[in-house]
# Entry
Amino acid sequence: MAKEIKTIGVLTSGGDAPGMNAAIRAIVRKAIGNGVKVKGIKKGYQGLLNEEIIEMEKKDVSDTIQKGGTILGTARCPEFRLGEVQEKAAEICKAHGIDGVVVIGGDGSYRGAQALARHGINTIGIPGTIDLDIACTDYTIGFDTAINTAMQAIDKVRDTSSSHERCSIIEVMGRNAGYIALWCGVANGAEDILLPEKYDFNEQNIINNIIRNRKRGKTHHIIVNAEGIGHSTSMARRIEAATGMETRATILGYMQRGGSPTCKDRFYASIMGAYAADILCEGKSNRVVGYRKGEFVDFDIEEALNMQKDIPEYQYRVSRLLSE
Ligand code: ADP
Ligand code: F6P
# Structure
């Protein structure tokens, strides 16, 4: 028989993402609507270990849906990989009367959720990362805001790049995943799009592309480079030396993680938050919520973590073709 759930906790973990507050708000309001109490756990697993735990009422999430970041705060907590630390965290949950926890974060955070579940605390994960690199879901909270922020910034760099007839390398976030670079590369009409999953580190191809485009009369050249490839500044120096075209690097950095969430991020985060609260209140555990093929769904955490995701081949081929 499913465990009776009287009180749940909610925490955000790993890198923050715009829309996390919409998810927290939905969890609080849906769970309370289901007759379940909610406690907010501050600063991810670190805050749990420090017992930074607060009661949350519906009014506590008023005026938060439009805010970037996470009202609960977030942290990386390397020690949470240790068995004894996980056991201690589960004991803290029990001492605070917390029967289940919704964890908003990425794959690493799901591992922590899995560990809590092993120690008798029901857990549900929600995908929260701007990187879109969670295999079980087509959507992750924050991606839409991040790509729109980056797209607008790249448009601005393009204006000045065109005026000065320069080449611009614009580095977007994505240490391991090229989704932000792919989407912005296409949306900004970049001449070259460098993805960690695909890049062959053959800079001569980029140089040849610039020389060819100049001969065809193009007066600017935009390269969207993913953080996972990095080295944009030294790349700019080498490209300038090889092509004679003035080249500048712009690293967009953390601005991509902040800002007011888009409508899409607020909406998806709200539905996912409510969905997570519902299945947690029903007594489900060790599951993650996702959005696949137009439906909100949930998977076993282990099954979700074993799924693979890669840059869709057709999208990649089109991105290359359109930049010619
Ligand atoms: P994300 O959740 O975005 O993937 P991280 O990989 O940094 O971000 O993970 C966030 C936090 O989740 C870590 O700081 C740690 O507290 C916890 N975590 C990560 N990996 C594990 C693991 N293997 N076991 C338990 N907890 C983990
Ligand atoms: O949130 C995702 C992400 O921005 C990655 O693209 C990047 O690698 C990482 O977070 C950097 O985060 P931090 O510097 O906070 O560890």
Summary: DSSP finds eleven helices and eleven strands in the chain. Residues 13-15, 45, 76-78, 80-81, 105-109, 111-112, 115, 129 surround adenosine-5'-diphosphate (ligand 1) (CB under 6 Å). The two ends are 60 Å apart (CA to CA). Residues 90 and 137 are 27 Å apart (CA to CA).
